[in-house]
Write a structure and sequence with these properties.
heterodimer, A: globular, B: four-stranded antiparallel sheet, binds iron/sulfur cluster
Chain lengths: 315, 347
């Protein structure tokens, strides 16, 4: 297990490097320049743009910029935002808890509801429950999260006045002020994820329940509860776990929109604004943070994968 | 002549199946895969059930164990185990019999052990469920003892291993240990226990089977497509074709003088002189088992039978008892028996 964990961590390094390179290249590929946006209000002339570009170093060859940029971002100093009068790292650290709250809560809710529901539909296949779960998960996947967000705001926050409609309170202020503002966005974000994991769990469980070792567990007289949890689910988890890593990445994508809908000052909201303004430093830093969380979640997923799969663990 | 097989039969068999019919549910209606099978296994007896794949023999075994797949159901018949009709016993009680008083040795040791659980866990959980009074240390000790009994080397270390770390032969030994671990098995059902193994391991496992059967005084239903396996182990043989028994006889009688043309075909395709390498060159019976869904008229074997006559296609033969205590399902068995007896006398 230790050897496997070390190997995964070592692989983490080149993955991060590739991700960073992609972030840099894709950001610079955006049409338009930050300088033009920065000077947007003023009557711009070419000479002025050139001058500011030189000051900011954007006139140098892209490779030189890259070589300079890479060690800087790795050391955590992400540079100065062109638009905020603060270092990018500071802005990001303020925003990170918001996005993490949203995506991690959504993932936990997804796992807590989706996996049991999927198991249940598989075990009771063809039953009313299986049928309802199927309809619900199709619905969850078909409804766009932002629309769901609007409906939740209109019904739960505006009409029923049960929960606040938007904004964010740090958890330090109190669990409830924080949680009450996270509930609706979490529901909006997790519903489509739940649909996905229910289907994934169901089909994997159905497959595993047909295997000979599950038949053997029954032939040994194991009670059905043990057959399902110890014999079937343990093996199904190998595949379900993989889906969870993917789900988190999807959730990060979804969070960008959900943060807009619920006016949550998270990374997604920041990145959108930074992209529009061509604020390279903020944009790259924000995506770097998102990538980092996704990679970390996938690292955890890989380790959990090994836990459920002795063939991987002992290889 | 009294066969030595009948000597071990006692008044109440361990397993007594009567008129068992099993069907798969299908959109077009139920499809019968086992048709009116009568079969009993006496105390301490090894009965072979022979048939090609698709003959219904594995489904028959699963019906006895009460682990039929969802799509299958018993339509008719009685499955008496130690006197009680399992079809009338609640499923939870049948479950408690499984792994304790009746056990299964599976076909594929490669796929029938759980890949995610340690060998030790897979052994001790059987005791946990059926013998809750045994403490955890004693369970482990028992697991080691069983592995040792079935000839697994380093039994203590195996407990911590996973199935993928073991060879096929070792896995099958583990599966046998798993079946016997409760120590109260009355009926062992072995479904092709050696098919997935190579020839030398096959022989070792069969030896182990016979030895354990004598030691533990249990009854065995040995399901296989290989009459060679039967010859080495069983006392009585039932031959199944397309869901029906076509011949039942003591093993010596059957090998000496098969009555049914299908049995004859199976015997002809056996390698002589134990040369297993020649197996692939031997003639096998042409054609395949008819689909259970196909409409049936007359003898199920008619399409492949070299002795087929007019009546075979019109009227289905019944399973007839012969004077020597055997049964056979063929219109012409008597006539053929006489003819082959003459020929054998000449040669
Ligand atoms: S009944 Fe006819 S077709 Fe069937 S096995 Fe006998 S001879 Fe062959």
């Amino acid at each position: 297990m230790l050897a496997y964990a070390l190997r995964r961590i070592v692989i983490f390094v080149p993955t991060l490097f590739i991700a960073l390179t992609l972030i840099f290249v894709l950001t610079r590929l955006l049409p338009g320049s930050p300088v033009a946006t920065l000077l947007g209000g003023q009557s711009v002339n070419a000479a002025k743009i050139e001058e500011v570009s030189r000051q900011l170093g954007y006139d140098r060859p892209i490779l030189v910029q890259y070589v300079e940029w890479l060690p800087r971002i790795l050391s955590g100093s992400l540079g100065q935002s062109l638009f905020f009068t603060k270092p990018v790292a500071e802005v990001l650290l303020q925003r990170l808890p918001v996005t993490l709250s949203l995506t991690v809560l959504a993932l936990l809710v997804t796992i807590a509801i989706g996996i049991p529901l999927g198991i249940w539909s598989a075990v009771r296949r063809g039953s009313l429950l299986d049928y309802s779960a199927n309809v619900l998960s199709s619905l969850g996947m078909a409804l766009p999260p932002f629309w769901l967000g609007f409906v939740l705001i209109l019904v739960v926050a505006v009409a029923l006045k049960w929960l606040p409609s938007s904004g964010y309170r740090p958890i330090e202020i109190g669990i409830w002020p924080w949680l009450s503002r996270m509930i609706l966005p979490t529901i909006a974000l997790s519903l489509s994820q739940i649909g996905l994991i229910v289907r994934m769990t169901r089909s994997t469980m159905l497959e595993v329940l047909e295997t000979e070792y599950v038949g053997m567990a029954r032939a040994k007289g194991m009670p059905e509860r043990i057959v399902i949890i110890r014999h079937a689910l343990r093996n199904a988890m190998v595949q379900i776990i993989t889906a969870i890593g993917l789900l988190y990445a999807l959730g990060l994508g979804g969070s960008v929109i959900i943060e807009q809908v619920f006016a949550l000052p998270g990374l997604g909201e920041l990145i959108t604004t930074a992209a529009i303004r061509r604020d390279y430093a903020t944009l790259e830093g924000g995506i770097f943070y998102l990538t980092l969380t996704a990679l970390l979640v996938n690292l955890v997923v890989d380790l959990a994968y090994a836990y459920f799969n002795p063939r991987v663990r002992l290889a | 002549m009294i066969s030595d097989a009948s000597a071990v039969l006692t008044a109440s068999p361990v397993l007594d199946v009567r008129d068992l019919t099993i069907a798969f549910r299908h959109r077009a209606g139920p499809v019968q895969v086992v048709r009116g099978v009568d079969l009993s296994v006496g105390h301490g007896e090894i009965v072979g059930l022979v048939g090609e794949s698709g003959s219904g023999k594995s489904i028959f075994a699963r019906a006895i164990l009460g682990t039929l797949p969802r799509q299958a159901e018993v339509l008719e018949g009685k499955i008496a185990f130690s006197g009680s009709d399992l079809r009338r016993v609640p499923p939870s009680e049948v479950r408690q019999l499984r792994g304790d008083r009746m056990a299964l040795v599976p076909q594929e040791p490669m796929t029938s052990l759980n890949p995610a659980l340690r060998i030790g866990r897979q052994l001790t959980e059987v005791l946990e469920v059926h013998r809750p009074e045994i403490g955890s240390a004693a369970r482990t000790a028992r697991a080691i003892e069983m592995l040792d009994l079935v000839g697994v080397n380093l039994p203590g270390e195996r407990l911590a291993q996973y199935p993928h770390q073991l060879s096929g032969g070792l896995r099958q030994r583990v599966a046998i240990a798993m079946a016997l671990i409760c120590g109260r098995v009355e009926l062992l059902i072995a479904d092709e226990p050696t098919t997935a193994l190579d020839v030398t391991i096959q022989a070792q496992i069969l030896d182990l089977f016979v030895r354990l059967q004598e030691q533990q005084r249990m009854s065995v239903l040995l399901i296989t497509h290989d009459l060679g396996v039967i010859a080495q182990t069983a006392q009585r043989v039932a031959v199944m074709y397309a869901g029906e028994l076509v011949e039942v006889a003591g093993v010596n009688e059957l090998f000496a003088m098969p009555h049914h043309p299908y049995t004859r075909g199976l015997l002809d395709s056996l390698p002589r002189g134990g040369n297993a390498a020649r197996k692939s060159h031997l003639p096998s019976i042409e054609g395949t088992v008819p689909s259970p869904a196909a409409p049936r008229q007359g003898c199920a074997f008619a399409d492949r039978c070299a002795f087929r006559v007019d009546i075979c296609g019109r009227r289905a033969p019944m399973l007839e008892a012969t004077t020597s205590g055997r049964s056979v399902r063929c219109h012409r068995w008597q006539e053929l028996a006489d003819r082959f007896a003459c020929r054998d006398a000449v040669t």
